[in-house]
Amino acid sequence: MWDIGSGLSALFGAIVGGGVTLFGTWLTLRASREERHEKRISELTDRQIARHEQLIVDLYALDDTSRRMLDHLLGDSIDDQANIEYESSWVKSNISRAQARFAGPPELHHTLVHALEVSKDFVNAIDKWRDDGAALTPEQVSDLQRQYRQARNEYIEAASQILMPRAQSY
């Protein structure tokens, strides 16, 4: 009988030891899964911030090069270097805009699209003036610039309100 008790004790010890090992493994896997999830969220947030920061830089560059282009158009001349910089900044801002839209988050979609539409109207008016000679009045230029800058600033404000708290939480 003593041998049965020893065997049962060994069996009970194996069951308890196996259960503790299984529970420890489960806890480790759960913690690892949560850590991977948090790391992924952090990486996505970092990518979103990087894409939107680049777009903001490119939108300011577009504002600067379009202002120089308008200065030349107001003076009835087109400087080749100003034209090249203006075209380049428009292309870069379009690429950045696409990257920012793809990166998300969805909460920024509306203000981002609005900024896109207003900047497109602004650039199309400059292009029409440059290409067709359809001059704008100084008031029209001022109004287009004001609308563009307002849409850009609204987007920047929305991006900072949405993205910065996410970044600070990780």
Task: Explain this structure.
By secondary structure, this protein is an all-alpha fold. 89% of the residues lie in helices and 0% in strands. The chain is rod-shaped.
Q: Which class do the helix and strand fractions yield?
A: mainly alpha
What are the segments in which pLDDT stays under 50 over at least 5 consecutive residues?
Answer: none
Helix fraction by DSSP (H/I, runs of at least 4): over 70%
| Number of helical elements | 4
The global form is rod-shaped
Distance between the termini: 61 Å
Chain-averaged pLDDT: 87
Number of strands: 0
What number of domains? 1
The main pleated sheet reads as: none
What kind of oligomer do you see? single chain
Strand content range = under 5%
Order of helices and strands: HHHH
Output the keywords.
about 170 residues; about 90% helix; mainly alpha
Write the layout of secondary structure elements.
Elements: H1 2-74, H2 80-103, H3 109-132, H4 138-168
Helix pairs in contact: 1-2, 1-3, 1-4, 2-3, 3-4
Quick take:
The protein contains four helices and no strands.
